[in-house]
Amino acid sequence: MDGRLDEAVWADAPKAVGFTQREPAPGSASSEHTEVAVLYDGEALYVGFWADVRDPSTLVARLARRDTYPISDRVSVDIDSYGDGRTAFSFAVTAGGVEQDLLIYNDVQEDATWDAVWEGEVAQTPGGYTAEFRIPFSQLRYPTGTGPQTWGIQFQRDIPASGEVGFWAPILPDEGGYVSRFGRLEGLVGLRAPRRIELLPYAAGRLTRAPGDAVDPFYEANDLEPTAGFDAKVGLTSNLTLTATVNPDFGQVEADPAVVNLSQFETFFEERRPFFVEGVDIFEYGRTRTSNVAFRPTFFYSRRIGREPSRSVGGREILWVDSPEQTTIATAAKVSGKVGDWSVGLLDAVTVEEEAVYIDDADQELRTAVEPFTNYLVGRVQRGFRGGASVVGGIVTATHRRMGDEGLFAGVLPSSATVVGLDVEHAWQDRAWTVSGVVAGSRVVGDSLTLLGLQRSPTRYFQRPDQTYLGLDPGATRLDGVHTELSLARTGGRHWRGSITGTLTSPGFEVNDLGFQSRADVASFSWFGQYRQPRPSRLNFYNVSAFGGWAMNLAGDPIQHYYQVTSFVRFKNLWSTFGYVIARPEYVNDRLTRGGPLALRPPDGAAGVELYTDRRRTLWGGIELQGRTEWVEAYDVGVAGGEWDLGVELALGWRPSDAVAVTVEPEWSRQLDTDQFFARLADGPAATFGTRYVFADIRREAFELGLRLDWTFTPDLSLQLFAEPFVLSGRYSGFKEFRTPRTYDFDVYGLDKGAITPRVCDGDPCAPRPAATDETPTDYLVDPGDGEPFTLSNRDFNFRSLRGNAVLRWEWRPGSTLFFVWQQTRDEFADYDGFGVVEELGEVFRAPVENVFLVKATYWLGL
Predict the structure, then answer these.
(1) Is 841 helix (H, G, I), strand (E, B) or coil?
(2) Comparing C-alpha atoms, which of 156, 80, 68, 154 is closest to residue 112?
(3) Residue 745: CB partners within 8 Å, gap ≥ 6?
(4) Of 262, 786, 851, 859, which has fewest CB within 10 angstroms of its CB?
(5) What is the Cα gyration radius of the chain?
(6) Which helix (H) or strand (E) holds 838?
(7) 174: burial class by Cβ within 10 Å (0-12, 13-18, 19+)?
(8) Cis peptide before 784, with omega less than 30 degrees from 0?
(9) Phi, psi of 771, deg, nearest 5
(10) Strands (E), 59-211
């Protein structure tokens, strides 16, 4: 394997020629000549490319680590070894020798996290370059038998100098589908089922240095933690694979971004852990062929597995606590592949019972469970008909917890949660039209206190006082619900694409034990239309899209209404621009008061534009501008007026050589929110059902700086440096009270009703006094005028954060990797003392710091 293709067998092999452009001139012959040959023996498939380049000075051969996508000349082969017209294994290599692989599923979707162990080599020649692939049959999936096989196959070539993308089997922009349009590889005979056993053991050592209290008996200034485990892949049949992990380590995974969440809704974080992102395409469920659906649940959110323990330990009698940051995944396994005509996937993961150790005020060291032993299960099946143009499938997810007899988790977690769903897709007219649908049911079982919490959660708010269609049941031990989605989409055609979609989610539908869901109790209708021009006379490509949507809760209250227009243009010099405009009329907000009465949401509008230069150049850049404003003339919102947002993001990339890439991405934003929920108090007016809902204006300003350096010594040896300092300030003012249900009117304290007095706390114990003009208040004393006085704390804040890591990665043999990792994290909340970007960035590096040093080695064994 040297990429040179100078062996005689390559010269004798039949050649595939005649590539056709998809971009920039769809249907035209490729501007450069390409030939491809395919060979095989008893162990592997071999693919050879001869890629001619008339002007060698235009060849782009940039370096990067494996499975990244630098702008570079590139060739690839996609193999539909199942022969189902929907699934393909894709292998690519750039002119710089960077290997890339991914899995294509559902005909058009890509899973870039899929990894295979194979070899790709490139050799540059006076007239271009050649590439040689060796793809072991153990990395493919196919039926076995005595007769000859026919596989789907596609060859692709990318030429960045002209922005050209060409295919051997033509796939034009006006055609629907991808895998279904492959050519054929015929004459494969005598293929036996390979012995597919792969083991990937690892050993790692982690040193953590973090701030702490030296008096804390659990604190260790240098916390050294060795660990070991392994991953395994076993071919159960030629089409079915078992993937398992024991004591997985995710130490080399990049940290989540810093987030300050002032809403009642959970933050969604992307999955980064290799076991859960690799090859999980089969478990994707719940999406129809449409482009915009609000409030759509995610049925499988793998971040639930191994999450932070759900029960906390604290109280006056507890002095010190040592609680795990994450739940230990004892083992996890996936089975995926084909059983007859069915695509199947089964994932099971077990997390152990986690305990916290604590010392009480009697100096006793005690233990208590903070997360129960839990089993997570996901099962998925799909079957294609008519060459993959029609598909039916189903899913089951189940979470079961061993709750114990102590009642520690009463009111915290349900004992079990199950979701069952079916989906269908049918395409016709050469896949130009597609109808698709989903229907699912959920059941959650637990103690009455836990189920009461689910009913009162932000997902549903059954306790809202001004509704009559939701029944809050304090004694319920079960919660059931349904979700359905139906879409009709035009998925092919030269110019016009679009879809219409309807959804319904009942109030009791719940998937958050193994999925992610922000709300239930919603019915919606959305539409999308797009005009595409893939071959304009003066431009490289452009499209114009229009979106719209309307939603209501099941009482018929309109809770969403919007219209949006977007446009994307790519010029012949490969600069690009994108812009959007959004308009939202008034509608009902049934979440503003967080379980209280309905409010209105004022009309608003937003717009944004971005411009990026040609990323092929040594120096490239981009700018994004966005803004939003409310129109509140018809409402009594207080002294601040309507809400507004403003944001600017820049991007600058520099590639001083083919081996080095530097990216700088600063982002600044400023906004005013006039309906920040602050407190819920009893003794409220009768108009708001005896509860007082206190809000405030909040002004926020933020700056974030993304810094990245990628230095690739060879495609197998790379160094990545990443740092992301982030600073944010929040200032509260204009404290006010929600006045009347189904309005957006507020009474400002000290202006519309009652009085408010800023105070400063002097001494210990606190002796509050009125704050002087130049003093920062400790709290605010509010006399509402129609009830008992109360205090509101001063929550003005500055938040400073840094996420950074350095990763040296060496793939010292195919599939085997050595990591050296340094991660640094800094987080600090402080009282607001002004906000200047330069000053705040300086404070970031004075914030408490946690350093983690990791060495990890893996060794791939193919048996």
Answers:
(1) helix
(2) 68
(3) 635, 636, 637, 738, 739
(4) 262
(5) 30
(6) helix 837-844
(7) middle
(8) no
(9) -80, 140
(10) 74-80, 88-94, 99-105, 109-111, 119-125, 128-136, 149-159, 164-167, 183-188, 197-209
Q: Are 649 and 624 in contact (CB under 8 A)?
A: yes
Residue 133 structure tokens: 């692939």
Lateral strand order in the sheet of 44-52: 34-40, 44-52, 128-136, 119-125
Model confidence over 768-823: pLDDT tens digits? 999 998 889 999 999 999 999 999 999 999 999 999 999 999 999 888 999 999 99
The residues facing 693 across adjacent strands are 680
Find out whether 488 and 529 touch, Cβ atoms under 8 Å: no
| 624 within 8 A of 610, measured Cβ to Cβ | yes
**Cβ atoms of residues 285 and 494 within 8 Å:** no
Q: DSSP letter string over 581-634?
A: EEEE--EEESSTTSSS--EEE--EEEEEEEEE--TTSSEEEEEEEEEEEE--TT
> What strands, in cross-sheet order, belong to the sheet with 365-371?
318-322, 354-360, 365-371
Return the DSSP state at 193: P
Instruction: Classify residue 255 by its DSSP letter.
Output: P
Tell me the C-alpha distance between 685 and 752, whole Å: 15
Residue 648 pairs in a beta bridge with: 625, 668
pLDDT of residue 253: 67
Residue among 590, 603, 605 at smallest CA distance from 633: 603
The answer for 641, left when phi > 0, alpha when psi is -120 to 50, beta otherwise, is left
247 contacts 225 by C-beta, under 8 angstroms: no
CA separation for the pair 508, 439 (Å, rounded)? 15
* Six-digit token string for 340: 């007859």
Q: Is 483 exposed, middle or buried (0-12, 13-18, 19+ CB in 10 A)?
A: buried
Q: Which of 487, 381, 371 has the alpha carbon at shortest distance from 427?
A: 487
CA-based nearest residue to 372, from 331, 401, 398, 414: 401
Kindly give the parts of the chain with pLDDT less than 50.
Answer: none
When the pLDDT of each residue in the chain is averaged and rounded to a whole number, the result is: 92
* pTM recorded for the entire structure: 0.88
Which position has the token pair 């049918």?
A: 426
pLDDT tens per residue, range 549-600: 999 999 999 999 999 999 999 888 889 999 999 999 999 999 999 999 999 9
Alpha carbon distance 752, 636 (integer Å)? 10
CB neighbours of 96 closer than 8 A, spacing ≥ 6?
A: 61, 62, 63, 64, 70, 72, 122, 658, 715
DSSP letters of 163-177? TEEEESS---TTS--
**Phi, psi (degrees; rounded to nearest 5) at 275:** -60, -35
Q: How far is CA 806 from CA 209, 244, 707, 708, 723, in A?
A: 16, 28, 12, 10, 9
Q: In this predicted structure, what is the pLDDT of residue 537?
A: 63
| Under 8 Å between Cβ of 548 and 561 | no
E strands in 310-415: 318-322, 329-339, 342-351, 354-360, 365-371, 373-385, 390-402
What's the pLDDT score for residue 119?
Answer: 94
Pairwise CA distance, residues 784 & 133, whole Å:
76
What distance in Å separates the CA atoms of residue 339 and residue 347, rounded to the nearest whole number?
Answer: 16
What distance in Å separates the CA atoms of residue 774 and residue 236, rounded to the nearest whole number?
A: 74
Burial of 149 (0-12, 13-18, 19+ CB in 10 A): middle
* Separation of alpha carbons 23 and 533, rounded Å: 12
Instruction: Give the Cα separation of 64 and 711 in Å (integer).
Output: 8
The Cα–Cα gap between 370 and 834 comes to 39
d(CA 855, CA 335): 30
Nearest-5° Cα angle at 674, 670 to 676? 95
